[in-house]
Amino acid sequence: MDDRPHKAHRPAHSGAKAEKKDKGKGKEKQHGFNEKAFAPKSGRRADRQGRRNVERDQTRLHVPLVNRTPDSEPPPVIIAIVGPPGVGKTTLLKSLVRRYTKQTLNEVKGPVTVVSGKKRRLTFIECNNDLNSMIDIGKIADLVLLMIDGSFGFEMETFEFLNVLQSHGFPKVIGILTHLDLIKKAATLKDTKKALKKRFWTEIYQGAKLFYLSGVLNGRYPDTEIMNLSRFVSVMKFRPLVFRNAHPYLLADRIEDLTPREEVRLSKGKCDRTVTVYGYVRGTNLRMGSKVHIPGVGDLDMKSVTILGDPCPLPDADSEKRRKLSEKKKLLIHAPMSDIGGVMYDKDAVWINVPGSFTRGNADVPQGEGEQMVMDLQDAGATLEDGVAQSHIRLFGSSSKHLTVQAPADDSGSDEDGDLDRDDDESGDEAEDESGIDSDDASEDDADEDTAPHPHSTGRSSRRDVTRTLPIASTSKIQRADVEYAESDSDLGDDDEDGDMGRRFRMEDGDALDIPSDDDEMDEGMEDGEEEENAPRWKVNLAAKAQAASSTSRRQKDWMKLIYSSELTPEEVLRGKEENLTEADGEDDDDEFFRFKKVPRNEVDAEVDCSKHAWKEEDLKQWEEDEMLESIRGLFITGTAAENGGEGYEDGDAGGDFEDLEAGGDDQAQISEPFKAESTRATALAKKKEELKRKFDEQYDDPESSKADFYTEKKDEISRQLQLNIEEFKDVSLEARALVEGYRPGTYVRIELVDVPCEMIEHFDPAYPIIVGGLLPAEERFGYVQVRIKRHRWYVKTLKTNDPLIFSLGWRRFQSVPIYSLDDHSIRMRMLKYTPEHMHCYATFYGPVSLPNTGFCAFNSLAADTPGFRVSATGVVLDIDRSAKIVKKIKLTGVPYKIFKNTAFVRDMFSTALEVAKFEGANIRTVSGIRGQVKKGLSKPDGAFRATFEDKVLKSDIIFLRAWYSIQPRKFYNPVTSLLLSDKSKWTGMRLTGQVRRDEGIKTPLNVNSTYKRIERPQRRFNPLIIPKKLQAALPYASKPRVMKPQRQQTYLQKRAVVMEPEERKAVALLQQIRALRKDQVARRKEKKSEKNAVHKKKVEKEEERKNDKVKERKKEVMRATGRKSKREAEAEEGRGAKRRKT
Amino acid sequence: MAQAGLVQYSGHQHLRLRLVLSLLSGKAVRIDKIRSEDKNPGLRDFEISLLRLLEKITNGTIIEISVTGTAVLLKPGIISGGPLTHDCPLSRSIGYFLEPLVALAPFAKKPFQLTLRGITTDEHDLSVDLFRTVTLPHLQLFGISDGLELRIKKRGAPPAGGGEVQFLCPIVKQVKTLNFVEPGKIKRIRGVAHAVRVNPQFSNRMIEASRSVLNRYIPDIYLYSDVYKGEESGKSPGYALSLLAESTTSALHCSEAISQPGVAPEDIALQATRALLAEIDQGGCVDRQHQTLVLLMMVLGSEDVGRCRMGEPTPRTIQFLRDVRSFFGTSFKIVAAEPMDKECSHLLYSCYGVGYVNSNRTLA
Lengths: 1143, 364
What we know:
heterodimer, A: alpha+beta, Rossmann fold, Elongation Factor Tu (Ef-tu), domain 3, Thrombin, subunit H, seven-stranded mixed β-sheet, 38 helices, B: alpha+beta, Translation Initiation Factor IF3, Dihydrodipicolinate Reductase, domain 2, Ribosomal Protein S8, Chain: A, domain 1, four-stranded mixed β-sheet, globular
């Protein structure tokens, strides 16, 4: 943006303008209200203006969409910085981070989260130049900072990225022009800006925001420009995108490998891993039980989800108060992959990075022998046993064999110390530290001292794994939870309601989140809940329930607990209260047996799977009594309020309310009731009155508001529902809430994924984004997906049926084999061999299901070296099915071998009589266009049949039957597993046959019959038609053949001699002379013209030469400029180092 | 769980609901130990018939039944719908088959036009009258209304049946979120008394008897006498009275009684009437028979909080809630509707919908 101050206005002191002004001064100003100024001059214009205003109002409206992201604690806005390499992405990111946190990053890897304001956090992520990354980023970015090299212009990747964005829901895009300082001439700069802006606007929308960053200062962009940009970012509003509003997802800002080291070692790093990813939940609520998809890896199962404390919390009043002045500079930044900040929160531990003497890459600290040894211990790749196995120790110098270690020794070793096995195979003192935390983590100081160094900071090649789990939801709550643990030991006897509840939730939590095999944790659980653990869980519940039941009425039943966390049968759940009432606490410990007996007895009732409620005789019997009948009178509209307790006033419309109130008052006076009931009635009355008053006020004050239009009504409805969503589970505890509604967007969670391919960890590169996209239940399935597709107009080739295509659909990227088709008169789906030129067509392929109306884009190749535009098609999902109904045309041909009048016997079309029977009555046609029908098969030549035609067919005619053959797309699905590769941009899927042949150097097999040869057609000779003399004679004259022989003799005109008269001869001679003269004249004229032409040609040639020289000069200049640029770039590359090389 | 996406159960109870949940969620279900201890083990004929019906209405469904018939594996395909006909066995009435279909039909690819033949009214399942007057209006709460119809072409009383109904159901993209916490007060009572192959006077006698009890409450009572004759009356004689009460907030309560040998029609009517009164006394916004349907639709709603006030859950409902959790991962919050009032047994069921979108639906 242009931020230079505007030039002050300087009024003209002389000239026409000054004179004009002077004249104006003389006039007297009109005072008072000018009624003409605001009154419409003409009725028509006023009408038009009014209409226009209304229309303009309509443009402001958008389809009301629910925003699933909560307003109170939204997840950070994802800002992706996208652009070609060397355009200044990292510089911009650093500048922006510097702007928000006052910290300078020297290395940026992965997402960086900062707090930008009271209500907004931002996650910056830089997108590399790989198309896979661009696709993934495009699916999650809320705002894209699209960087364009101003000195170069748009690049192909930019357009590709924009097209990807378009098909996956367009996030907000801000264009940023850089390298403008390279354009020296002001006029050129202006023109470039204008041209680029125009192009940008056609691509995005008219008036799209475009920033200009002038140059780099101290490795950053100018502060004022960055400030302007950040202002735009901070006020930006985001409209929910449909796909993201229906799927939960998170951008992993941290990833850890939790696989037991031993397992990894034993499998030589090839075993499937258990991996945790961390990030803010976005989109909708993330729920357990569904799968997630990591683009580039595949579908994965979530083993557990844990809410962690927010690592980058929004400032609240409390934190603001605590913040000291000196801390003002240090603002929050969260970028675990870049390893900034130094504090890392896990489920149950806090890692603080203290660069100490044992840290790698800490050369300035002098390292003693001991330090060196500890450092060496850290990167022990193999166990001692392995070392022994590999080393060739000989007991005696004379012994021929070196020592070997037997395999069983290994087993016993791991068995004897289960803890070590599970935890880590690292140095002993660290393990001790951990156990220290385990045992007495109640004390804060201890924990601080004991925390192990940060896993990353050690610089080890392998990650530290943390398998211990505590059944608590968030780290922020560790203290509180621990206190609870401590208290619960002493409180066990008390059994008060609250304590019971608290423990129950912990138990539920354990059910949901714990790893069953974890012995540690079981022990821990036993410690504080021994009594509970001894008895089966349902029994504990029973006891609590029994107590509750005996103390108060039946409503104390906790239905959620009974239904979801007890193992009672439904009948027992229902009957539970009665039992407890009747048997009181008669149940002893071994009533388990008693219970199982009961089940078969109930089965008689449950035998019939019926929905109708079977009323018992006695239940209905009681309705014979008048008293009983009267008791429910209050449930009818005719019944008075008094008969139904406090519920009396709920019904009725606005009109009758006043009377109701009166009547209620009367009732109150008449019927003497307990005081309590009266008070409730009074409150209800007050409520009612208030409601009425509100209604009246609304109608009286603002009659417009009551009749809101459709748009506002919908918006109100949405906001009301959102309010309800928030309030319904407000009072439920965090864990229970997660169970009921999942993990809300904005929470920072840790997701444990199981069976992750080991390559994801081994080849992990923070420059490639890891996205965890939640799948809807339907999206886990496979089927035939029908889409509407259109070849991209910039993609140069047409697409061919059965050629593999890479789709980016939903979260997924995969290769599949589509069949293209068109709707043929709404009768059939007819296969197309190629996509139409400028038209949509259908495509059907086998793959994972996506909901109809999901957009996608397709590519033939994702490789960076693909020439030209890579987005080959775009489209939208139409239909999901388990079978496809595509047909292709097939023509069966046959020849007639016997022809009657309109009937012919046809053979060679079918091979058996059965086939004929199948086609009886089918329409057939000859090449010459005679239509007919298959009648009946013949017995003699197999597959021959009788057919009738509308005319007599010729023996030489070919008869064909047009039929439709249904085809199914190939069941081929190949996910693009780019994140699993060591070189992530080198993914190759299925190749085309031609490509395979080219790569392998195989020649195309040649069918001799398919080769093109010269067609030799024998000359046809026709015998002369001879009509017998007799016949000729009999023919009428008109039909007689008129055969005339060529004349042999010279005619008279040819053979006569011509003798001319003298005048005649003279005339002829004169004519001859004139002709000769004329000829000569023409010849001379021609010669002259050619001479002139030659001269002109020479002149033109000269001109041309001059022009060429000019062009050459210009070319030279351009080349010089390019050379300069490339040189500069090379220099820049040297300066920037590693980043440039990898992109 | 043996494999991902497979839900396992044992026992023949709640078969229908589990199959419905499987088809809707797309998770395969395996049910074993079906009457394995019984003298006559394995699936019954009506259950087989139901499985066949489900196969008919879907595309790509794989149903594997073990040799003994005591285990079933259902790998669900997509619900296709369209015009179909099915002959129900005489061991169960049409209601048994309609009940799962009502839950499935809105999520099909094409609108349902299903013709079912068999027994229209029996003592175990909801009769087609109640389906028409009560169950289908329950779907209207969720925005499924246009073109929703149940036509009773012929009536068929047990044991010989011979009835025929046509079920038409539109398809929806997504069901609306329910927020139904006001039970309201009963404002009208309707009923259908039908009699086939018996004296048509029977239905009038039933109406008389029922009115004798109900007239004391409200004047807005209309009980229709519905007599089918000739071809349309099925193969067996029988009669029944079905009643429904509607509240000011259009909460529906229903009851029904059908003819029994040796019982006077008046007694049948009184039975139905008393059952209705008992049902009204139960209260809530949804009656017991429709708890599962309403709860299922609430689960399938958009990703918002749906609320409904009902009475205590039936055993069927309790099992259903557990099954829903294993299929959809959704659990309900169930609290007393009025914590202050000790007498009120109503519960408030609230859940966060899964945002189920009809993925079978064809676009354009």
